[in-house]
Amino acid sequence: MTTKTTSTRDQILSLLKKKKQMTVSSMAKELAITEMAVRRHLNTLERDHIVETSLLRQAMGRPTNVYQLSAEGQELFPRNYRDLTIELLRNIQEIEGLEKVQELFDQRKEKMRLRYEKRMFLKDFDSRVHELQTIQNEQGYMVEVEKNEDGTYTFKEYNCPIAEVAKEFPVVCKAEMELFKDLLKTAHVDCQTCMATGQEGHCCYKIKQSETM
């Protein structure tokens, strides 16, 4: 988490990162501000799911609320997942070849299919498309879906959490398209634009129902 100036909000987050759990009074003391000011920031952070609270039972006196960073709050601090992932994939490709990288993403695709296909159970094609939109949005893809006059769907993803990986390893995009086909029970999923290749600022799929469905 890097900022040019250190705001009270950032100071609170830094304290929680270092101390793990803190009470309102201990934060107010550390920051030399009022408890009311601390609570105001914590209310906003809790609303945004950046911090969470729990009750701390003490040997004497009433239980008190303690605050800590949520999983989302932890992600505000610098991570190096992208570079680590790319480096590991490069090493795998160098040692065992691109086929091994493809195999890894095929395995990932299969695990995701097993995880999500129960959400498609007994759904018609239109409902499957919208359920896929929900699934992708849960993963941060910012999906918009439009049904065209010919019955096909335009499926646009405005964010790709793994775009940097996909730029170097296009097998990621291939695996995603195969996952879509499996979940929608159609062979007609065509990638028209892909942000990983720099074509557009979004990925766009044309989806058509299989005649046999």
From TrEMBL:
Look up the domain of life of the source.
Bacteria
Any one Pfam family match given in the protein's UniProt record, by short name:
HTH_5
Annotated Gene Ontology MF terms? DNA binding; DNA-binding transcription factor activity
Keyword terms of this UniProt record: DNA-binding, Transcription, Transcription regulation
What protein name does the entry list?
A: ArsR family transcriptional regulator
Residue stretches making up the HTH deoR-type domain: 5-65
